[in-house]
Automatic annotation (TrEMBL):
Keywords: Carbohydrate metabolism, Glycogen biosynthesis, Glycogen metabolism, Glycosyltransferase, Transferase. Monomer. Residues 162-172, 181-196 have a biased composition (Basic and acidic residues). This is 1,4-alpha-glucan branching enzyme GlgB. The active site is at D578, E631. SMART domains: Aamy. HAMAP family: GlgB. NCBIfam families: branching_enzym, PRK05402.1, PRK12313.1. Its EC number is 2.4.1.18.
């Protein structure tokens, strides 16, 4: 098989160079005897001479037959007369009669052969000099069915013509009028916008014109109406001929027998002709694509296996509005795209071709002729499956997966995430346990997450990306799960298994930018298509990538449909949208003079705002129960406000369900890194989040970004010795789980991994090995995380009113010298929970806390200093009776013991 090219086709626009091992029309023209050109004075004259030659041939046949018959009759009469005259000589007469017949047949055969040679010489002289050879001049019935060697061709196919009286005889293949030189050049160069008008079968004067483009073929035979007719070889892989077929205006169904071998009957492929099919993409699809409103774009564009007119194959479609031409190439054509030029479907910018016999698993790319005439070989932007990187081809995909999460999906439709427990375990799938496939992960990850009590997992980007070190944040295959761990159906299995264990699946989605790889989206059709045409707006200054042109309807459609695609096709329960801030501001990471204000003089990217609003509105409308989460690091107003509600700045809300609380994350971690003796000076960093806690719907993230690139792991950020580091780590997690907002924790932090995360080796699971001397310390932290999730899920006060100010009340927010924070959380029915954090390394006994007077006693339900977590065991094992001593503005109080570097939770006893 010819190796697939890794670089774009750089063939020049002028005449196609001759293929090795085959003479071109020009070569044969040069080899003809002098005077051959005189026989090609014009198309009409050539046609006339050809017809005359055919007439002469027929006359010669007729004359030869008559002569042979007369001689045979005369010989027979003479023999009979002699036999009658000589009695007893009957046997001699019969023998002589037989000999005379044989002689007559031989004479007739010799004369017929001589006549054929004369006609053939005349026909060759009459051919135009551009003809390479003349094929068989008569249609011959096919003797046997020809074996089908076409790749992916199904066993069932139309019956081949048979030898016998059923096959018509005497229908000749006449040469077709030569193709216009300019059209021929465009066709061979890949810059023809409508190859179906040239190739295939078309009614013409006197029959049906067949024209086929099959590079490297030695011959092409049409199988039609029970007969087989070999086409004339026009050179450069083009074959044509006119068959005198009468009937309906539309050409009859036919198949092609393509021979690549040097001898007749060798290396033959029987196949359908792609150019006999009408477009397989509907007018409604094209209309919606043109409007940028096709919410199921993946069903219209890309590679889609289907059956057309009873023929199985794959429809290829791609949006490339500025291309001079597009061809599809792949392993089914030995990576030579010449044979399969696509047609342009009007002004939609979409190119289409249905390829019979190509099915799921086939590798393909698009050979695009750019406006300057050069070629570029591109992966499909809509590919639903790809090769394993670093290979870059797209793969025809057809899912056969049967879901088993019907119960989960039914519940999801009524899911109200703001009033439900939401505790998220963030995972980088390739490194969670390196080397596992999606199917192997499906056996291990759901069980692990369920055991720890997380309600959801959040997967770092799973869409295909060329560089693993980007962690998936530089995407080239927006519609394909990365092939590093298996097929798309394998990924479906992983999601399905998580759902069956009651675990929701969020995934990181990256619509802000894409890499510059020259086989992917960058300048896809030779122009700035997916990126902005202004380089100042296209280039992202921080990441060396390109930003999407959110102002172009087709680009917005590509991204909005992609968000829907993951939720509908893979049952994803939520999208965490990466780098929203970089999309919202024209001056993001740009200095003065490097950006242009919007029409109103502001720095807001109005196109990006419109895109995010459309994406959120579409996802929430089509996928009830799905949630979207914004990673937005600024104070943009209305990130989680409804799109139809206008804020003070004049903008409608962006429509997200949640926003990552980056401010809380940075402030709280800054506080925790300080030695306890210095924390009094940073106390407000732990309390400031409540100033804006209800301005948006928040998720509290301790994400992968906080444990890489020199930032150290969560436990390593903490001051003090190993015991104090773990104690701080546990106390911080207790504070985080009780703070208003949902929780997210990155893998490895649940067992206090000491090293930074690396995508090369993932979490240090060996820390939990019983053979390791400090394994108990790490297991203790993991046990705490399990209990945090268990108590959290069972306590509505911690999640039911997360987005309502009435769900929270400070008890003590100003005890900076004590490093103590205390507050109340309330469920919808008013049931309270008291959370107290002591971020000093000393035990504080009988620490008075004001509480609601209607609760007579309180009990400790969680203490991060418990011995089973690796703590000192200081706590409040007995219920705490509420006294009538007022404190913190409340009529009653309790006096719990506050363990060192610990958080405790108390609920009504």
């Amino acid at each position: 098989m010819t190796p697939r090219p890794d670089t774009p086709d750089s063939r020049p626009l002028p005449d196609t160079p001759p293929r090795p091992g085959r003479a071109t029309a020009q070569d044969e023209s040069a080899a003809r005897p002098a005077g051959a050109e005189e026989g090609a004075a014009g198309t009409a004259e050539s046609a006339g001479q050809t017809a005359a030659a055919g007439t002469a041939k027929a006359a010669a046949k007729k004359t030869a037959k008559k002569t042979a018959a007369k001689k045979a009759a005369a010989a027979g009469k003479a023999a009979a007369k002699k036999a009658a005259a000589e009695p007893g000589a009957a046997r001699k007469a019969a023998a002589k009669k037989t000999a005379v017949k044989k002689t007559a047949k031989k004479t007739a055969a010799k004369k017929t052969a001589a006549a054929k040679r004369t006609v053939k010489k005349a026909a060759v002289a009459a051919q135009a000099p551009t003809r390479k050879t003349v094929a068989k001049a008569s249609a011959v019935p096919q003797s046997e069915p020809v074996k089908d060697h076409a790749p992916n061709w199904p066993d069932a196919r139309p019956p081949a013509p048979r030898r016998g009286e059923d096959a018509p005889d005497g229908h000749g293949v006449r040469p077709a009028a030569p193709l216009d030189p300019g059209e021929r050049q465009r066709l061979l160069h890949g810059s023809h916008h409508d190859p179906h008008t040239v190739l295939g079968a078309h009614r013409t004067a006197g029959g049906v014109l067949f024209r086929v483009l099959r590079p490297y073929a030695r011959s092409v035979t049409v199988l039609v109406a029970g007969m087989r007719a070999e086409l004339h070889d026009d050179g450069d892989g083009l074959f044509s001929g006119v068959l005198p077929l009468a009937g309906e205006p539309a050409p009859p169904p036919y198949r092609l027998l393509v021979r690549y071998g040097g001898e007749p009957g060798t290396d033959e492929v029987e196949t359908e002709d792609p150019y006999r099919f009408l477009p397989a993409l509907g007018e409604l699809d094209l209309h919606l694509i043109g409007e940028g409103r096709h919410e199921e774009l993946w069903r219209a564009l890309g590679a889609r296996p289907m059956t057309v007119d009873g023929v199985a194959g794959t429809r290829f479609t791609v949006w490339a509005p500025n291309a001079l031409g597009v061809r599809v190439t792949g392993d089914f054509s030995c990576w030579d795209g010449t044979a399969f030029p696509m047609r342009s479907l009007g002004g939609s910018g979409v190119w289409e071709l249905f390829l019979p016999g190509v099915g799921a698993g086939a590798l393909y790319k698009f050979d695009i002729t750019r406006p300057d005439g050069s070629h570029t070989l591109r992966a499909d932007p809509m590919a639903r499956r790809t090769e394993v990187p670093p290979a870059t081809a797209s793969i025809v995909e057809e899912s056969s997966y049967e879901w088993h999460d019907g119960e989960w999906m039914a519940r999801r439709a009524g899911y109200a995430p703001h009033r439900e427990p939401l505790s998220v375990y963030e995972v980088h799938l390739p490194s969670w346990r390196p080397g596992l496939t999606y199917r192997e992960l499906a056996e291990q990850l759901p069980a692990y997450v369920k055991d720890l009590g997380f309600t959801h997992v959040e997967l770092m980007p799973v869409a295909e990306h060329p560089f693993g070190g980007s962690w998936g944040y530089q995407v080239t295959g927006f519609y394909a799960p990365t092939a590093r761990m298996g097929t798309p159906d394998d990924f479906r299995l992983l999601v399905d298994r998580l759902h069956q264990e009651g675990i929701g699946v969020l995934m990181d989605w990256v619509p802000a930018h894409f890499p510059k790889d020259d086989w992917a989206l960058a300048r896809f059709d030779g122009t700035a298509l997916y990126e902005h045409s202004d380089p100042a707006r296209a280039e992202h200054p921080d990441w060396g990538t390109l930003e999407f042109n959110f102002g172009r309807t087709e680009v917005r459609n590509f991204l909005v449909a992609n968000a829907v695609y993951w939720c509908e096709e893979f049952h994803i329960d939520g999208l965490r949208v990466d780098a929203v801030a970089s999309m919202l501001y024209l001056d993001y990471s740009r200095e003065s003079g490097q950006w242009t204000p919007n029409p109103y003089g502001g720095r807001e990217n109005l196109d990006a705002v419109a895109f995010l609003q459309e994406m959120n509105a579409t996802v929430y409308r089509r996928c009830p129960g799905v949630v979207t989460v914004a990673e937005e690091s600024t104070a943009w107003d209305g990130v989680t406000r409804a799109t139809h509600h206008t804020g003070p700045g004049g903008f409608g809300g962006l429509g997200f369900g949640f926003k990552w609380n980056m401010g809380w994350m940075h402030d709280s971690l800054e506080y925790m890194t300080k030695e306890p003796v210095h924390r009094r000076y940073h106390h407000n960093e732990m309390t400031f989040s409540m100033v804006y806690a209800y301005s948006e719907n928040y998720v509290l993230p301790i994400s992968h970004d906080e444990v890489v690139h020199g930032k150290r792991s969560l436990v390593s950020k903490m001051p003090g010795d190993w015991w104090q580091q773990r104690a701080n780590h546990r106390a911080y997690l207790g504070f985080m789980w009780s703070h208003p907002g949902k929780q997210l924790l990155f893998m490895g932090q649940e067992f206090a991994q000491g090293a930074e995360w690396s995508e090369a080796h993932g979490p240090d699971w060996w820390l939990l090995d019983p053979a390791y001397s400090a394994a108990g310390d790490h297991r203790g932290v993991r046990d705490l995380v399990r209990d945090l999730n268990r108590v959290y899920a069972a306590t509505p006060a911690l999640w039911e009113r997360d987005t309502e100010p009435a769900g929270f009340s400070w008890i003590e927010g100003g005890a900076a010298d004590d490093n103590v924070l205390a507050f109340l959380r309330y469920a919808a029915d008013g049931t309270p929970l008291v959370a107290v954090s002591n971020f000093s390394p000393v035990v504080r006994g009988d620490y008075r806390i004001g509480v609601p007077g209607e609760v007579p006693a309180w009990r400790e339900v969680l203490n991060t200093d418990a011995e089973r977590y690796g703590g000192s065991g200081v706590g409040n094992p007995e219920p705490l009776k509420s006294g009538s001593v007022p404190a913190h503005g409340r009529p009653a109080s309790i006096t719990p013991v506050l363990p060192p570097l610990a958080t405790i939770w108390l609920v009504p006893a």
